[in-house]
Design the sequence.
């Protein structure tokens, strides 16, 4: 039996020779990756949810609400600058010592940073110190998130049984809508319960809850073993003659820089599109359309529910066709619904706004389900943690500033939604083109019998 098996439509689905699959281990790994990632994204998205409605008025001085919102969104983007830093560190050590240890560190770092945000003084009591401290903790959040996604994806996909890597990768991606639902529901509930007291201190409650949620995630991950692919790669390394190894990031730049660029483009909409549809859209509905924050928070919640349903289905379909096929199809849909989403928002109808978010977070997120599996198929195991983490988080650097860019475009164009809609459409097209190239690369690897476990890709001229 070859060490590389093909997915139904030609994608590379590595499975080492004579591996004895342990269903219980695979389920524990999947559960640990999903729950931990959900809790991490809860903390990360919570910052986005509260950027416009909390941080803008409480952490930035001045009398210009629009400027305060843009400043808050720029601070939101700081977390995305930090994500490649976290990806580099986590990827380096994750490719050297394993995925499990790094994932324990990332989840603890995220929980501590989020809890401390809930204890920060505001601009009124601390002046410029307040946004500076908020920026520092946001940077820590970004580093933690940068190391989390790649490791969690590998924990699930590398432990998955043959023929189910698309679905296992999709389940990890469900952590994103789960985190969205948690943050939106908890914030909406606190807003409803506290009323006018929300900005006076009740906003801290969702952040203080973080430490309890992270404790649950740590407990679950303590029961998860190292991944099968990493163990196989380590065994192959031990059996081979000793070689001096470069740092994973050096290997990526030296050997597969083109694949890194393709990976960045393929993942772009998963980050940038999401934060335009959530963080920016909260500000758009509240500040531009003049509607209560609960309208958009509830719509985001329903959109995230739709996202879970469509991503679950997309993961199943990915294993019957191929992950890259589903990603390409998903980005076609994302491009088609970019303008209708904003047209529906502009009706100011609660029902239509909910439909818009179901379209945006639900149907436009089909590609997000198997995109982690596609990135996994692009890179060999010895550099895989670093490569997929960098792909996602370098895309995240651009994505993190999309809300600020969209808000700036909104102001520059006099408040119309055409500018932000064009921006969303362009992001979708970039990811569509990149995913088509990724599919071609994966199918070529399969046709040539490239062994992603042993890393033969790195040795090809």
Sequence:
């Amino acid at each position: 039996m070859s060490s590389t098996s093909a997915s139904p439509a030609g994608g590379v689905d590595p499975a080492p020779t004579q591996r004895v699959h342990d269903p219980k281990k695979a389920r524990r790994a999947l559960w640990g990756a999903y729950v931990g990632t959900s809790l991490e994204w809860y903390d990360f998205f919570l910052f986005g949810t509260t950027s416009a409605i909390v941080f803008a008025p409480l952490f930035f001085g001045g009398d210009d609400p629009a400027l305060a919102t843009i400043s808050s969104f720029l601070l939101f983007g700081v977390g995305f600058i930090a994500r490649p830093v976290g990806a580099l560190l986590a990827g380096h050590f994750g490719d050297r010592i394993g995925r499990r240890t790094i994932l324990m560190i990332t989840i603890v770092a995220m929980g501590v940073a989020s809890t401390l945000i809930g204890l920060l003084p505001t601009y009124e009591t601390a002046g410029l110190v307040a946004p500076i401290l908020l920026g520092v903790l946001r940077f820590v959040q970004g580093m933690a998130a940068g190391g989390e996604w790649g490791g969690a994806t590998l924990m699930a996909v590398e432990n998955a049984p043959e023929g189910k890597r698309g679905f296992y990768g999709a389940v990890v991606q469900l952590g994103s809508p789960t985190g969205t639902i948690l943050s939106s529901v908890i914030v909406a509930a606190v807003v409803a319960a506290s009323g006018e007291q929300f900005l006076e201190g009740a906003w801290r409650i969702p952040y203080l809850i973080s430490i309890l949620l992270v404790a649950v995630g740590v407990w679950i991950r303590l029961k998860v073993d190292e991944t099968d692919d990493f163990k196989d790669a380590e065994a192959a390394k031990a059996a081979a003659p000793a070689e001096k190894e470069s740092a994973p990031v050096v290997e990526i730049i030296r050997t597969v820089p083109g694949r890194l660029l393709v990976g960045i483009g393929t993942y772009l909409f998963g980050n940038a599109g999401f934060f335009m549809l959530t963080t920016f859209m909260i500000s758009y509905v509240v500040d531009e359309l003049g509607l209560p924050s609960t309208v958009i928070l509830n719509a985001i919640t329903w959109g995230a529910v739709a996202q879970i349903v469509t991503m679950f289905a997309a993961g199943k379909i990915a294993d019957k066709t191929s992950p890259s096929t589903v990603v390409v199809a998903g980005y076609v849909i994302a491009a088609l619904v970019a303008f209708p989403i904003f047209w529906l928002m502009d009706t100011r109808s609660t029902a239509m706004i909910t439909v818009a978010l179901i379209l945006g977070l639900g149907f436009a997120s089909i590609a997000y389900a198997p995109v982690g599996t596609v990135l996994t198929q692009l890179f060999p195991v010895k550099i895989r943690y670093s490569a997929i983490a960098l792909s996602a988080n370098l895309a995240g650097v651009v994505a993190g500033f999309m809300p600020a860019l969209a808000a700036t475009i909104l102001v520059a164009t006099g408040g119309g939604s055409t500018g932000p809609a064009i921006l969303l459409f362009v992001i979708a097209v970039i990811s569509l083109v990149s995913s088509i190239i990724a599919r071609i690369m994966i199918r070529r690897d399969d046709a040539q019998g490239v062994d992603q476990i042993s890393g033969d890709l790195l040795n090809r001229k």
Observations:
- The chain has a mean pLDDT of 83.
